[in-house]
Amino acid sequence: MNDSSWGAPPQAGYWGPSDQGPAQGADPAGPAYDAHYAQQTRPMPIVPDVPEHGHDQDDDQGTARLSGPLFRDEPFHDQPARDEPYRGQNPSAQPYAVVPQNPEPMPDAPHPAQPQPSPQKKSAGRDLGAAIGVGVGLGVVIVASLFVVKAVFVGVIAVAVVVGLWELTKRLEERKGIKAPLVPLAIGGAAMVVAGYARGAEGAWVAMALTALAVLVWRMTEPPEGYLKDVTAGLFAAFYVPFLATFVAMMLMADDGAWRVLVFLILTVVSDTGAYAVGWRFGRTKLAPRISPGKTREGLLGAVAFAMVAGALCVQFLIDDGTWWQGLLLGLAVAVSATLGDLGESMIKRDLGIKDMGTLLPGHGGIMDRLDSLLPTAPVVWLLFVIFVGSG
Asked: How many C-beta atoms lie closer than 10 Å to residue 372's C-beta?
């Protein structure tokens, strides 16, 4: 027997004999782990094994057999290969679990200085260059047709109505599976605009009724499944786009109709511009975050202020028998109706899960994205002009 291995005091990283010494004939247990790892490990207490026959005492050889693993999820065969040489010294000894001692954390290495992100500037969310270019182009076409031949401007309204109906019905079918009949809507919508210009409110109501009837009959040519939702969407589209647009044509019937329509367009555009400019610069409080998160109360105040100033100037100098205070009221009404119209279409687009109704106008979206403020504002302006200066 090697006295140096049993008589010497236990060294770091090795298990020594028990206090009473080994029993006669027992082989010495090998070291629990390699001396190479002595600096990173700590001694483990000897855990007596439970004999297979259920006894609580040491086995018949008088030695306390070591049992492993220390933890349930460490089976014997998962021990590192460095434990293998010590099994030959004592075949009955099992490899011991090695618990590495937590090393002291090393100081963090210096990291190179990370560039701080520059504060982001507010973005308009659209291509302003394209938006301005398209807006100017549309303005030229509208003004030219408005003051050259009124009938040409009526044709422009009819074309805008048909394109808007196509965009709306297309999105309804794509996103909701609703098939509103486009053919009777397009024909009836164009007829509605012409009837409003030729016959006034009476002609507009008659054309609206006939269009609704045509939608109901046209849908009967297809299977009955979804009939109710399809014709309901068709009636909504007929009222929302062509019927409201008819009031623009009705404004055109007056002797100064071209100037009335121009004031209507100017005030709506100024209202939108004021809301955008003030809201982008000073907007803090959301107006309707669930419908349109980008709109703010400050923007609404900007729309009201801009539209009232523009209304006072326009009505005073462009409308026959108009006064500045009428323009103030008109501007206030336009700002409110334009904002509600914008929120209304935002509600539709949010329900459909889309950002724009179309892509026809770069920087603007579709035709419906430009008509959203104009459509509900048209009947309001028409009515106030009739009240303030009459229908002639």
From this structure: 25
Q: Position of tokens 């206030």?
A: 332
Q: How far is CA 356 from the centre of its chain?
A: 13
Task: Tell me how far apart the alpha carbons of residues 65 and 27 are, in angstroms, rounded to a whole number.
Answer: 11
Q: What are phi and psi of 169, to 5 degrees?
A: -65, -35
Instruction: Report residue 2 as tokens.
Output: 């090697």
End-to-end Cα, the chain, rounded Å: 128
- DSSP line for 264-279: HHHHHHHHHHHHHHHH
Contacts of 286 (CB under 8 A, 6+ apart): 293, 295, 296, 297
Q: What is the pLDDT of residue 363?
A: 65
The 10 Å CB-count burial string (b at 16+, else e) for 231-267 is bebbbebbebbbbbbbbbbbbbbbebbbbbbbbbbbb
Cβ-contact 335, 271 below 8 angstroms: yes
| Three-class DSSP labels, 151-188 | HHHHHHHHHHHHHHHHHHHHHHHHHHCCCCCHHHHHHH
What's the length of the chain?
Answer: 392
Report DSSP state, residue 83. Answer: G
- The single residue listed with the structure tokens 């965009």 is 167
Region of 12 (left: φ > 0; alpha: ψ -120 to 50; beta: rest) is beta
Give the whole-angstrom CA distance, residue 348 versus residue 5: 87
Question: Mean pLDDT of successive 10-residue segments in the chain (392 residues)?
Answer: 45 43 46 48 53 44 43 45 46 50 53 54 59 77 86 94 96 96 97 95 96 97 95 97 97 94 96 94 93 93 97 96 96 97 94 90 82 96 96 80
Looking at residue 77, its pLDDT comes to: 46
The residue type at 14: Y
> Could you give the CA distance from residue 291 to residue 30 in angstroms, rounded to a whole number?
76
Beta bridge partners, 41, equal 100
Reduce the DSSP state of residue 240 to 3 states and report it.
helix
Nearest Cα to Cα of residue 163 among 369, 342, 373: 369
DSSP secondary structure letter of residue 3: H
Q: Is 126 helix (H, G, I), strand (E, B) or coil?
A: coil
Q: Would you state the pLDDT for residue 76?
A: 44
